[in-house]
Specification:
With 605 residues, the protein is α/β, with parallel strands linked by helices. It has 19 helices and 24 strands. It binds fructose -6-phosphate (F6R).
């Protein structure tokens, strides 16, 4: 969360920073700011509360800056305000800093080194820039780089920093630990940014920065060292990212575009994980890693955690290995007793989630193998795990995750099938994944054509409710968990995904007249039981809604999903619920893509 961008060289810094911030806005959007400067030492610092558009309104006359840094914020320390917005400055105004992350020992630093300083806001970042300034200003001979290093030796926590010295308009100092950051290299200019996608208008040549590395960035050079000053040499890489991927096209919101992209994500995954003969093609090393494991631990957060549940049944059936799910934010503080030969699978759209990474660091220390399933090549979780499988769903920009969820389950299906086939399992050869995923893609398309119907259901049944429930059993319960998360995060309806049979053990007391209870029905053995639970809540006044696959559908069901293979049902069943969430948010007049209090990549603990 929080996005940072910096540029130095022969470009208009304000334009580049503003375009970059617009693309980074998904990472946080409660306040923003830029600092730009030029060779004549003119400089400008502009900050605003709210969106990047609010910042744009305040820009005023351009100073033709050639270097600068910018930031879009998701508040951690201190409320969204001008004082707390970045860039943060030292007392003299000479040092200017943007930061993504959390400085854990900021209070100790303040008490020990900065007792006499006056602070304008409440951010940990302000403490950091004061600390750098203290070291640089109390010893005039100390180069800024050394002052920065000295501060970094003291600072604990996560950070991606971009620092400027107003006396040197041609240099940006960069450092990183745990928060994402990479360089973008151009002809006569260089950039630094939290996300490659925010730089692709300017360059397709990138260079990674690893944790505890420093970069001195100038228009024609990027000098990387470790904190001890040892030079680091690293090749840059070219990534031809598609600009149209990051635009909304004719869509009103990214979320709708991303929901609509799901059939093509399924088809692209078929291309990615099959060979020319149509046989499933997953790296032998990854298949072996699964075969060698006596238990698979899927670690994830939020929607990715729910996707893990969506794939659990299929993974267990085809790998013949128990699958346990772990919430990254819980496991980071202690793992249960592990099996003898665990394999950890990290599911993460962004590949940057701090909670998941905290577990991965421990897994690596323990020497266990790990696999990251992610949408972002080169992301931290991908780099640090033993293996990676890419979802290849294209950038997911709406805060509410949709195509990554379905893409993750489909990717795990290829893994499960590959392992099952290698093990000679009949069920694996019988499972024609290419055909079944094509069926899923068609089923999604059929659900997408029901948008008007879903909009009406929302208008009549969900528009004004304060709470709602999704219920289901087994696989449908897992779908309910994700459906509820979608609804609450973008429409602010308090919603729970519940195991249908569990309601009567307490939670049914919350049912009162008009509360929507939406049943997910895909399992022929369980549908009638869930329908029974629906009758129980209907008898207590609930407004019941049914989403059923054709195979179990009854006359009068509200939304029918065309039949898919039961192992892939979570992919098909989630789509109407994504549309319900989208419509509810839209009809309530909310910002679908940028719900309050949230940000896309959760890079703080
Ligand atoms: C919800 C959502 C979040 C993320 C979670 C994990 O729509 O997007 O719950 O799923 O923050 O993020 P990743 O998958 O990037 O690790």
């Amino acid at each position: 969360m929080c996005g940072i961008v910096g540029v130095v060289g022969n470009r208009n810094a304000t334009d580049i920073l503003m375009q970059g911030l617009e693309k980074l806005e998904y990472r946080g959007y409660d306040s923003a700011g830029i600092f730009v400067t030029n060779a004549q030492h003119q400089s400008k610092l502009v900050k605003s509360v709210g969106r990047i558009e609010d910042l744009r309104q305040k820009l005023g006359i351009d100073i033709a800056g050639t270097a600068g840094i910018g930031h879009t914020r998701w508040a951690t320390h201190g409320k969204p305000s001008i004082e707390n917005a970045h860039p943060q400055t030292s007392t003299s105004g000479r040092f200017v800093l943007v930061h993504n992350g959390v400085i854990e020992n900021f209070k100790e630093i303040q008490d020990r080194y900065l007792k006499n300083d006056r602070f304008i806001g409440q951010t940990d970042t302000e403490i950091a820039v004061h600390l750098i300034a203290k070291f640089a200003e109390e010893d005039e001979k100390m180069p800024v780089l050394d002052a920065f290093k000295k501060a970094l030796d003291i600072i604990e926590g996560s950070y991606a920093f971009a620092l400027m010295d107003a006396e040197d308009p041609e240099t940006i100092y960069v450092a990183k630990n745990k928060s994402p950051l990479l360089l973008g290299l151009g002809d006569g200019y260089n950039m630094v940014c939290s996300d490659a996608m925010a730089m692709i208008r300017e360059t397709s040549e990138f260079m990674e920065i690893h944790d505890k590395e420093l970069v001195v960035l100038k228009k024609n050079s990027a000098m990387i060292t470790d904190y001890a000053g040892n030079p680091v040499t690293r090749d840059s890489y070219r990534a031809e990212l598609d600009l149209s991927d990051i635009g909304k096209g004719t869509y009103p919101y990214y979320m709708l575009k991303e929901i609509d992209e799901q059939p093509s994500v399924m088809r692209q995954l078929i291309q990615r994980y099959t060979d020319a003969d149509g046989a499933v093609n997953v790296s032998d090393a990854i298949v072996r890693a699964v075969q060698e494991a006596d238990r698979i631990y899927i670690i994830a957060a939020g929607t990715s955690y729910n996707a893990g549940f969506g794939a659990k049944m299929m993974l267990e059936a085809l790998t013949q290995t128990p699958v346990e799910l772990g919430l990254a934010s819980e496991w980071g503080y202690g793992m249960p007793i592990l099996s003898e030969r665990p394999l950890f699978i990290f599911l993460s759209q962004s590949g940057e989630t701090a909670d998941s990474r905290q577990v991965l660091v421990q897994v690596n220390e323990l020497g266990y193998p790990s696999l990251t399933v992610t949408n972002v090549p080169g992301s931290t979780l991908s780099r640090e795990a033993s293996y990676t499988l890419l979802i290849g769903a294209g950038p997911e920009i709406a805060v509410a995750s949709t195509k990554a969820y379905t893409g993750q389950i489909a990717t795990l299906a290829f893994l499960a099938k590959a392992v099952g086939e290698t093990d000679g399992l009949q069920a694996a050869s019988d499972f024609d994944l290419v055909k079944e995923l094509s069926v899923v893609a068609q089923s999604i398309e059929a659900s997408l054509s029901e948008k008007d119907k879903i909009a009406k259901i929302v208008q009549n049944r969900l528009l004004t409710t304060r709470s709602a429930f999704y219920i289901g059993r087994k696989q449908d319960y897992y779908v309910s968990m994700e459906a509820a998360l979608k609804l609450k995060e973008i429409s602010y309806v308090q919603c729970e995904g519940f195991a249908a049979g569990e309601l009567k053990h307490g939670t049914i007391s919350l049912i009162e007249k008009g509360v929507p209870v939406i049943a997910v029905l895909s399992d022929p053995l369980l549908a009638s039981h869930t329908r029974g639970n629906l009758m129980e809540v209907a008898a207590r006044g609930a407004s019941t809604i049914t989403i059923a696959v054709e195979a179990v559908a009854n006359p009068g069901d509200d939304i029918i999903v065309t039949n898919v293979h039961p192992w892939l049902s979570a992919i098909a069943m989630i789509v109407p619920t994504q549309l319900i969430a989208y419509e509810t948010s839209l009809q309530r007049g909310l910002d679908v893509d940028k719900p309050r209090n949230l940000a896309k990549a959760v890079t703080v603990e």
